[in-house]
Amino acid sequence: xxxxxxxxxxxxxxxxxxxxxxxxxxxxxxxxxxxxxxxxxxxxxxxxxxxxxxxxxxxxxxxxxxxxxxxxxxxxxxxxxxxxxxxxxxxxxxxxxxxxxxxxxxxxxxxxxxxxxxxxxxxxxxxxxxxxxxxxxxxxxxxxxxxxxxxxxxxxxxxxxxxxxxxxxxxxxxxxxxxxxxxxxxxxxxxxxxxxxxxxxxxxxxxxxxxxxxxxxxxxxxxxxxxxxxxxxxxxxxxxxxxxxxxxxxxxxxxxxxxxxxxxxxxxxxxxxxxxxxxxxxxxxxxxxxxxxxxxxxxxxxxxxxxxxxxxxxxxxxxxxxxxxxxxxxxxxxxxxxxxxxxxxxxxxxxxxxxxxxxxxxxxxxxxxxxxxxxxxxxxxxxxxxxxxxxxxxxxxxxxxxxxxxxxxxxxxxxxx
Length: 417
Prior knowledge:
elongated, about 425 residues, alpha+beta, about 20% strand, 2 domains, 15 helices
């Protein structure tokens, strides 16, 4: 085998230009497939990041009526929807793959949040429990968080996010100032921000509406204060922190199923449902799957053309070396040896082309990524499979020339000029 490999390199190096042109089809095909697969995986990863964010693995479980989240700004509280008890919340926290869980209420307010004459139109107001910020991956940027006294005494204090601070206070420090919520004064005690800042990559208006929540900011209140400005016994939503991104779907479904077991609403369409971001990501990814597969098949055609080129050049090589084959057979070389020699040369030729194609594919994927702003994620299995596939091409398309060389009549071969 080693002797055959040495002879293969010797034959390839003796015809450098011809060997390079023969490998070119393999190089182009492998490079195209590597670039396409890398771009597809990078785009899929970007879609997941755009939807999930910086990796806090949060899942929202909310009360739905049919396919829509119940909005208590316009609808009365349905009968048979109990407030989630602490015992139920603790049961959810004990479920497998759940790191943390927190209850909250949420309302989009268009004309109820003011600082002097400045309105937070379209901003969100949250009534949160003491573990909400840690569960959502938020940390204090300024001031303090809610204390146990704030909850116990239902103090009218609030915390802003950086967007609401920017809108209401126009760059000034908000801590210690008083804002108005539905006519009630609330003192700002802190400002929160994400532990890991993340901005989705947006290329089109469709992506903007898919990924961006239309909000000018958020205001957080202790959940015990919620009835002062909205209503008593309003059903809560649940935010879960899963251990990993892949656990988000199962964690959200299990929690929703548990909460639905406590419902006794007459309307069966009212149920808790988890916002399955992973499923949304898969659906978006599947939209372009057929196009991506078509591109891979087109790149595969270039590999077929490259394989035909390998077969053609190997047939030429057999013709050129007919006398050499005849001499080897005359001194006792078996068919298997001749077959192995030419088959090894074909495999070595395509393997070199495969390795060069992998290198070219990595470079090409980076060029496409930088030119179009599309992320590229190199797949190690795809690299290995590409080299193995190029070797397989050498075996398949080198078999006919090798078989022809092995079956040459030694006397006729020696007469060949």
